Amino acid sequence: MIPGIPPRNTTPQSPIFQPQYPQLVFPPWTSTTRHDTYPAISPTNPALSSKGKVILITGGSSGIGAATAISFAKSGARAVIITGRTEKSLAASAAAIKALGLGCEARYFVADVEDAPRIETIFSAVSVEFGKIDVVVSNAGYLPDHSLLKDAHLEDWWRAFQVNTLGGFTVLQAFFYGASKLVAVKLVQDAQGEWPERRFFSVQPGLIDTETSSKSNVPGEYTVDLPAGLSVWLASPEADFLKWRMLWANWDVEELKSKEEEIVDGDLLKIVLNGWP
């Protein structure tokens, strides 16, 4: 359970929240929900400046990853490094960053997040060139084919677990030593406990039309710029009170900030096992 978030079958109170497929998402934690970027998370907001920061994004060749790379570049990042499996798409994404003309360095590396030696090499190379890595967005993901349980292919299901969980852990380990999505959320909390000086967040982007989500056969409800802008906001001091926690990209950050005391004092928005032992 996640304290502060009602169970999946709870009817949300806010009339704003009326998704086309309500069974696929949690009710929102904020009364205001968003479908596109907005001023509070805009990468051009001076309060969220990424000036001088080095950003590394996995799965940065398209979709949410590519949009997040652009957002950090617009926010003033010194360098944005993206990884992915398709060189052509990576090159196009890196070129789009440079085309902004904002002076942001762009690098790309072809890599599978399951390949630990390759990921470690990339983190080392970036650290040598730029001296540090300030922000890591572990965005690479895989969605198995949509099917009934009896028709599911074990290899395809296992591939999702490997990318979403093993891949996420590989990136996390490379950063500091240098099931599936639900397990990734717990990894974030465990990592925060081991490295309290760092800030970790688990972001659920929601229903967005990307190459990965196309397998679900469910139309998107949000733009890629929504989670992209949220990533920039999370990298700013404003989001410090949300470390260790999970949140959805469509939650309104101004409302979250107004509930800071409630979230922190109530230890909300974490995955915990209450009542035992």
TrEMBL record:
Arranged from A to Z, the UniProt key words for this protein are: Oxidoreductase
Domain Ketoreductase, by residue range, is 53-210
Which Pfam families does the entry link to? adh_short
Question: What are the start and end residues of every segment in region (Disordered)?
Answer: 1-20
Q: Which InterPro entries match?
A: KR_dom, NAD(P)-bd_dom_sf, SDR_fam
Annotated GO MF terms: oxidoreductase activity
Positions with biased composition (Polar residues): 8-20
As for family, the record states:
Belongs to the short-chain dehydrogenases/reductases (SDR) family.
Q: What is this protein called?
A: Ketoreductase domain-containing protein
State the organism named in the record: Lipomyces starkeyi NRRL Y-11557
